[in-house]
Design brief:
Helix content: 40-55%
Number of strands: 0
Strand content: under 5%
Radius of gyration: 22 Å
Shape: globular
Length: 205
Amino acid sequence: MDNWKLVSQQAELQIRAGTQLASTRVCNFWGGIHKQFIVQGENSYFIKIDRNYSYNAILSAVMIDRMAGDRLPEELFGIPCMADIEYNPPEIPDHFYDNDGRRLLILWNSLNSIFERKNGVIFQRKGRIAAYQAATEYAQRDQQIAELAHSLKWRLNQWDTQQRKEHDKIMKAGFNRLVELTPSLKKSIESQKQGVPDAIKNWER
């Protein structure tokens, strides 16, 4: 514990001595909140999570994604803890017979390559929202564009109730499959059920 305190104090001194690159605050925490930052180049970064005036600070995960460049070999392994259950976003059609559909596809694909440009993320978000809005408007007349609108909506994190139900169903299937393939995990879960009220014993099913 003393070593951890020393490391924490030294990290705090380095953070205060350095230049703050970005900051954000968490408000209306009910339901969970995601914050995103983009960094460029090989470097070391300190990320400080502070409770400010709150009673405590809750951090569920720190997730790091690579926005540009070729895929690494380990990125082909699939989603961790999903066993052999696949979960992928709706595919974007790669060809359109409709001229508006072709223009929307060109716009969306061109926005994929501007992460590294100055203020690129801001323009990318606005451009993607515009592409989705146009796809939604044209969706009634063309099935391919309707499929595109559904896929873009998923990628913009604008899920509806049906999409959330599909997600929960797949996550539950992945968990059950993981338990099935991992005897030690199944044994651990069974042991933890001892003394648990009947109403929540089968929560994972």
